[in-house]
Amino acid sequence: MQNNPIKKWVIGVDVGGTEIKFGLFDDKLTEKWSIPTNRSDSGSHILPEIAGEVHRCCLRNGISPEKLRGIGIGVPGPVHDGGEVRSCVNLGWENVRAAEVLTGYLSGFPGWTPENIHVRCANDANAAALGEMWLGGGRGCRSLVMVTLGTGVGGGIVIGGKILNGSRGCAGEIGHLPCLSEADIVGRCNCGNRGCLEQIASATGIVAYAKREMQRTSVKTVLGKAGEETLSAEMIFNAGKAGDAFADGIAEKMAFYLGRGMAAVCAVVNPEKILIGGGVSAAGEYLRAKTEKHFREQAFEGFRNTPVVLAELGNQAGIAGAAYMIISEQE
């Protein structure tokens, strides 16, 4: 699709398990809002509700379909060929042609036709990486790797300004790199395997590892004051920052494996920059510096000096990247 100066506006949508975030963009974010995710009836209400929000946004901003360049959507699951979501457990979707279905719902509004509607869909972590390249910590880059540390570990890879999706939409699943040594594996990953990076680099993974190690050590730690139900990744990092030797050792172990994972990814795609995002990245420079140190120790010499930086957009990265999917197609 060629760039059309009349088509100024883009809407980015970030679909999460609890809320759906929206952003209206021209060359910057001009409006943002969110609604709860209606996951009832196997997520069948999600796309019609997104269509309704897109339509209302255009009405209140005086944007006709002819002025809308498109709608980009990020979803928490693999996406094939820019439109089909193969499996999305958090939403209850299975083989949903999201772009096609959303186009159908939008076509039901007066003045909206399939010919003036353009929808693209991508994995949410991949979209976030694209957003960081456009407006965040990856500005000025055309290739980057972003790892998102939250309840799980996600990832996004951008090469030449485009998302690397892979043949089945599964590229960038950094959390499922099998890189843990047997001695550091606690239980199984949510994917069913053992030894995934997610088992120690996610918020739940680092807590599980810390709980096990507390049972094995005689080293005193302030973390012992936290009950089994209240211990969190934030507590671990805060204690480590404050000089608690046990907590700092747990953070060091996590950073060792995160650095290893990044070294493995860089050996394949050789990006200009590595970004660390997600809720756990709130640990800031403490986590970034440790990860960079371990990355440099384990990385191949040719990419050892790749910058390791913190993501900047927070929870706006997804809507920015979803919007930029549309913009970059038309540049």
What does this 3D model show about the protein?
The protein contains ten helices and 13 strands. With 331 residues, it is an alpha/beta fold. The chain has two domains: 9-129 and 317-329, Nucleotidyltransferase, domain 5, CATH 3.30.420.40; 139-311, 2-Layer Sandwich (Nucleotidyltransferase, domain 5), CATH 3.30.420.40. The protein has a five-stranded mixed beta sheet with strand order 3-2-1-4-8. A five-stranded mixed beta sheet has the order 11-10-9-12-13, sandwiched between helices. Strands 5-6-7 form a three-stranded antiparallel beta sheet. Strand 1 (9-15) and strand 2 (19-25) form a beta hairpin.
Layout of helices and strands:
Elements: E1 9-15, E2 19-25, E3 29-36, H1 40-43, H2 46-60, E4 68-75, E5 79-80, E6 84-88, E7 93-97, H3 98-106, E8 119-123, H4 124-135, E9 144-149, E10 153-159, E11 162-163, H5 198-201, H6 203-216, H7 233-241, H8 245-269, E12 273-277, H9 285-298, E13 308-310, H10 317-329
Helix pairs in contact: 2-3, 4-10, 6-8, 7-8, 8-9
